[in-house]
C-alpha cells in the first residue's frame, strides 16, 4: 500500500531529527514525508538541509497557518496519490518495524478507517493473572492503578468501559490502558501522536478549527467523529516511544483551562445531550481532578506549575457556566 507520513513540528529541530533517523531505519519506508513547520525561525529548515532524507518534502507555514490542527489540515491538502496517511508527533521515536506492522493492519482489517500505534515508554506492564488491589488488569496483563482512578472508584465515578472508549460521563481510560500484547483492539479514541487514516477519510472530515494553537484533545475530537462512520483500531505491535518535549507547549494556566474546556467539548462530540446523572458525574470528576492538582502543590517538586494548572482548571470549569463552546459534529 502507498502511504504518506505527515509530521507537524514547532521549534524542535533536534527532536525532529531524532525521529527522522528512526524513520530512516524502518523496514517499510514512507512513499512521501511531509514536514509541516510552524517554527518562527529557520533552524528546522537548516537541519533538514544538512541531513537529507528520501521522499521528504518541507513546508514552512505562515503565522495564520500555524497550530497543530491547522498544520495537519495544511498537510492533508498537499498529499499526492496515496492510500494511507500517517501522523507522528515530532517527539516520538519508532521501533524499526513500526510502519510495517501499522500498514499491515489495513490489509488484515480492510474495513478499518484508522489505525493507531502503541506507545511503550509511558507505562510499566507485567503479564500476570494475579490482580492486586492497587493494580489495573486487562487481557492477562497488569499495571499500577493511578491515584485518580483509585479515588474515582471509591466515589463511584468509574465504570468498566473498555480502554479507548468513552463512557457516558466521559473521563474513561485512554488507550494507554491497553497492554503490550501484540494484539489489535477496536477503539474509538485514537492518539494523534501515532495515528493513521485512509486518505478517503479526509474527503469528508478535517481537524476541527476549534482546537487552535496547542490543540489539546484534537485527536480525540477527530477520532470520535470518525468512529461514527466506521471502525478504528490500535495495533499494539506497531510500537514507538513518546518523549514529551516541553518546547512549544502553553503555560500551565492555559493548559489547565484547555484540559477542562476541551474535555467538555469532546464529551459533547459523542454525547450531545447526556443524562442528568452523567452530567453530575462529569462535573464531580472535574472537581476531584482539580482538588488532586491542588494537592500536588504539597507533593510535587514543581509546586508553582501544579498550582497554576489547578487555577486554570478552575477557571475552565467556571467559564463553562457562562460560555460553553459550540460543538462541531
Which short descriptors sum up this protein?
329 residues; alpha/beta; 9-stranded mixed β-sheet; 9 helices; 12 strands; 37% helix; 20% strand
Describe this structure in words.
The structure is a single chain. The chain has 329 residues and is an alpha/beta fold. Helices cover 37% and strands 20% of the residues. It is built from nine helices and twelve strands. 40% of the residues are buried. The mean pLDDT is 94.
**What structural class do you assign from the helix and strand content?**
alpha/beta
Strand content: 15-25%
Helix fraction, binned, reads 25-40%
Cα-based radius of gyration, to the nearest Å: 20 Å
Q: How many DSSP E strands?
A: 12
Q: What do the pLDDT scores average to?
A: 94
Distance between the termini: 31 Å
Low-confidence stretches: none
- Outline the biggest β-sheet: 9 strands, mixed
Number of helices: 9
What is the global morphology?
A: globular
The SSE string, one letter per element, is EHEHEHEEHEEEEHEEHEHHH
Task: Give me the secondary-structure topology.
Blueprint: E1 3-9, H1 13-24, E2 32-37, H2 43-50, E3 56-60, H3 68-76, E4 84-89, E5 92-94, H4 98-108, E6 112-119, E7 125-127, E8 135-138, E9 141-144, H5 147-154, E10 184-187, E11 194-198, H6 218-227, E12 231-242, H7 252-270, H8 276-299, H9 303-322
Parallel strand pairs: 1-2, 1-4, 2-3, 6-12
Antiparallel strand pairs: 4-11, 5-12, 6-11, 7-9, 8-9, 10-12
Amino acid at each position: 500500500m502507498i502511504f504518506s507520513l505527515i509530521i507537524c513540528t514547532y521549534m524542535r529541530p533536534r527532536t525532529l531529527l531524532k525521529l527522522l533517523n528512526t524513520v530512516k531505519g524502518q523496514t517499510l519506508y514512507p512513499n512521501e514525508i511531509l514536514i509541516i513547520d510552524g517554527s518562527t525561525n529557520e533552524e528546522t529548515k537548516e537541519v533538514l538541509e544538512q541531513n537529507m532524507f528520501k521522499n521528504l518534502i518541507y513546508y514552512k507555514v505562515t503565522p495564520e497557518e500555524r497550530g497543530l490542527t491547522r498544520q495537519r489540515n495544511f498537510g492533508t491538502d498537499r498529499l499526492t496519490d496515496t492510500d494511507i496517511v500517517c501522523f507522528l508527533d515530532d517527539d516520538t521515536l519508532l521501533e524499526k518495524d513500526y510502519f510495517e506492522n501499522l500498514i499491515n493492519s489495513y490489509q488484515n482489517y480492510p474495513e478499518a478507517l484508522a489505525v493507531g500505534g502503541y506507545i511503550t515508554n509511558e507505562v510499566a506492564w507485567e503479564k500476570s493473572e494475579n490482580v492486586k488491589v492497587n493494580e489495573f488488569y486487562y487481557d492477562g496483563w497488569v499495571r499500577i492503578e493511578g491515584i485518580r482512578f483509585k479515588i474515582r472508584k471509591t466515589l463511584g465515578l468509574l465504570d468498566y468501559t473498555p480502554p479507548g472508549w468513552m463512557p457516558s460521563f466521559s473521563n474513561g481510560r485512554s488507550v494507554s490502558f491497553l497492554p503490550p500484547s501484540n494484539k489489535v483492539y477496536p477503539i474509538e479514541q485514537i492518539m494523534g501522536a501515532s495515528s493513521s487514516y485512509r486518505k478517503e477519510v479526509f474527503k469528508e472530515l478535517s481537524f476541527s478549527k476549534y482546537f487552535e494553537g496547542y490543540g489539546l484533545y484534537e485527536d480525540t475530537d477527530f477520532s470520535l467523529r470518525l468512529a461514527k462512520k466506521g471502525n478504528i483500531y490500535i495495533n499494539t505491535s506497531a510500537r514507538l516511544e513518546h518523549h514529551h518535549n516541553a518546547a512549544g507547549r502553553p503555560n500551565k494556566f492555559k493548559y489547565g483551562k484547555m484540559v477542562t474546556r476541551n474535555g467538555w467539548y469532546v464529551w459533547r462530540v459523542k454525547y450531545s445531550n447526556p443524562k442528568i446523572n452523567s452530567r453530575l458525574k462529569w462535573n464531580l470528576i472535574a472537581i476531584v481532578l482539580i482538588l488532586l492538582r491542588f494537592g500536588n502543590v504539597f507533593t510535587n517538586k514543581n509546586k508553582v506549575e501544579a498550582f497554576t494548572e489547578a487555577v486554570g482548571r478552575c477557571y475552565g470549569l467556571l467559564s463553562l457556566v457562562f460560555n460553553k463552546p459550540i460543538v462541531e459534529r
